Structures are given as C-alpha cells and as structure tokens.
Amino acid sequence: MAGNTFGTLFKLTTFGESHGPAIGGIIDGCPSGVTIDMEFVQAELDRRKPGQSAIVTQRKEPDTVEFYSGIFEGVTTGTPIGFVIKNANQKSKDYAHIKDSYRPSHADYTYDQKYGVRDYRGGGRSSARETASRVVAGAIAKQVLQEVNINAYVSAVGPLKLHKPYSELDLAQTEKNIVRCPDPEVAEQMERYIKEIRKQGDTVGGIVSCVIQGAPVGLGEPVFDKLHAELGKAMLSINAVKGFEYGSGFEGASLKGSQHNDLFNTDGSTQTNLSGGIQGGISNGMDIYFNVAFKPVATIMQDQETIDNKCEKVVMQGKGRHDPCVVPRAVPIVEAMAALVLLDFYLLNKTIKS
Ligand SMILES: Cc1cc2nc3c(=O)[nH]c(=O)nc-3n(C[C@H](O)[C@H](O)[C@H](O)COP(=O)(O)O)c2cc1C
Ligand SMILES: C=C(O[C@@H]1CC(C(=O)O)=C[C@@H](OP(=O)(O)O)[C@H]1O)C(=O)O
Known about the structure:
Elements: E1 5-6, E2 11-16, E3 22-28, H1 38-48, E4 65-67, E5 71-72, E6 75-76, E7 81-86, H2 108-115, H3 131-144, E8 149-157, E9 160-161, H4 184-199, E10 206-213, H5 227-236, E11 241-246, H6 257-260, E12 278-279, E13 282-283, E14 288-294, E15 304-307, E16 313-316, H7 327-352
Antiparallel strand pairs: 1-2, 2-3, 3-7, 4-7, 5-6, 8-9, 8-10, 10-14, 11-14, 12-13, 15-16
The protein binds flavin mononucleotide and the ligand C=C(O[C@@H]1CC(C(=O)O)=C[C@@H](OP(=O)(O)O)[C@H]1O)C(=O)O.
C-alpha cells in the first residue's frame, strides 16, 4: 500500500486505522525555526473531531495530539515531526456484521479485493478518521504560511445551496454555527435538513467551498504539477470527495471567451477572476477559490441489498455511529489539504528562485 505520503518537500506520511490503538503521522521537510502554537493545532483538530455536535457521528474522541519529535521548546527543529492521536472510543462490535460482507459504496469490497486482508473494524484505514493526521499537518503548514489565509465553508447540503460568491459572504460567520455555513439563515435550514435526513436513517452530500487569500504570484510547477492539478489531487484524496472545480469551473464551459477573459489592470491584477487565481498552473496573486463536492455517506441505517465475500446476495443495514453529512467536519480537512499544497509549492519556489 504505497499511497500514504503526500507532498514533495513538505511531506506528510500518515498511519493508523480507525479502530487500532492510534493514528498519526510524520511530517518531513518542515522548515526549522517556526514557532508552533499548540493550542491552534488542537483547535483545528477540534473543528474536525467526531462527536462535536448533534449533526455528526456520535463517536466521542478527544483527538488529543501528542508530538514525539521535531519540535523543541515550541519551535520546529527541521527534523521529522512525529505525532500520534490515540483512538479512545472504538465500538468494533458495530462492524461484526460487515466482517464477511461489503457495504455498498464504502471501501470494504475494493480493499478486500486489492489486499486480501481487511481490518473491517470502523472501515480500518479507509475511515475518514485518518484525516485527523492531515489536519495536524495542515495546522503546522498554516503556521509556516503566516501571510496566507485559507478559509473553507459549507456552501451546499443536498438541495440547499448558498447562491452568493465568497466575496459577498461574511466568512467570520462560518465557525459560529454547527454546519459551518457563513449565512446563518441558510445554515439553520441546512441543520434542520441534516437532522431530518438522519431521522430517516439516511445521509446526504454537500459542497465545501474554499478561498485562499494572500498567496504570492508564482506557485505551481507546470506542466504536470500545476497548482490546480495538485489542489485537485489533494481534495480528491479526501474520503467521499466526488468533484473538484476551481475558478469558473464547470459553469465556465458555457461562456464565451469575451465573457470569460480576466482583463488586466496595470499592476498585473485582474478586473475579474474567473481564472480562480491560477493561470497556466501558476498562481497569479489573485484569490484562489475552488469547490469540493462530497457524496452522501455510504453507511445508511436502512436495509440495502449487497453481497458477501462469496458473492452471495445479503441484506444489510448500517449500524453504529455515522455522519449523516460529512461537510461540516470536512471544512478543516479541505483547509488542511490546501495548506499542504501551498506550502509545498512555496518551498519548491524557493529552490528555483534566488
Ligand atoms: C469527515 C468525513 C466523515 C465521514 N464519516 C463517514 C461515516 O461516518 N460513515 C461512512 O460510511 N463514511 C463516512 N465518510 C466517508 C468514507 O470515509 C468514504 O466514503 C470511504 O472511505 C470510501 O471512500 P470514497 O467514498 O472516497 O470512495 C466520511 C468522510 C469524511 C470526509
Ligand atoms: C471516527 C471518525 O469518523 C468515522 C468515519 C467513518 C468512516 O467510515 O469514514 C465511520 C465512523 O466510524 P466509527 O463507526 O468507528 O465511529 C465515523 O465515526 C473520525 O472522523 O475521527
């Protein structure tokens, strides 16, 4: 299983399964001399942790991070940063019924087919619990990138959508409600909707939007490692992600060039920003913005037909504690992955420019 490391210079390797003793990671390539605010790291984890509100999984984990190396007296040393988050609230008996059969649209079937051995408890390595380690690394990356602001928020839950662009929203409102939608009225509707869907034993998808402000001109390594290509990979590596678009995205395909071109100002900025802050795979200094679409959670509390490992049909119903909608907890994960991508390119840029 060789896909557990992300990044070129600022590299995160994660380990651990949802119902094992712990998850964690090693960050290699973090610059030395950066003062790390541990309370900020923990606060970022708290934004992602399970059990934080009535509209997320009720698994109650403190998600306390313990650092074992790479930070001395609160300052990064340039050596590998090793950290662990202990698992404290596993209920593995909820997964006994999927030991020999596969939840539709989760990773049970594909992991079994690929590896032939599967830690079925809590989805094992395929659980979104792994993303806690990404949030730790993202919180460190954010502190290296002091001048860059990365703000994600929920812009859709099922059919309920925010129709305003980020520039017309008050993003300071995002963390003031449990949905993490910056429009308080829409947030209330979304909360009610998620609760209703949960009562039905069902789940619903949604969209997380993200805006990055203050990124310098020049991030991105054409032609294969374009900034938007790496952001796309980062986002698509998050559990349950189905789509990524930046700038004008899929809507842009219906426009004419005369409507779509971002005309320059004499300082190199542009009058509009349908490019989403990236041209030719390189940041142009304008805001970078993108949307990430998440599917409805696969484990539903309703009978569904599926197959067992002998390919016989069985009827299965989800058990235990699951998210009815992932987007409220996905917001800090999206920000973390964006921070990893940006910092990596920022460091790469330093290697080619004096
Ligand atoms: C924050 C977050 C929470 C999630 N919670 C659950 C959950 O409680 N139950 C579940 O079946 N899937 C959950 N998922 C999605 C699964 O982890 C994911 O569907 C699974 O790994 C299969 O991968 P895929 O959907 O990307 O193909 C969650 C995803 C995220 C991002
Ligand atoms: C534990 C977390 O979320 C889990 C993600 C998840 C999945 O299938 O992705 C399934 C559930 O696992 P469990 O049945 O063990 O509670 C969620 O609670 C977490 O995010 O830390």
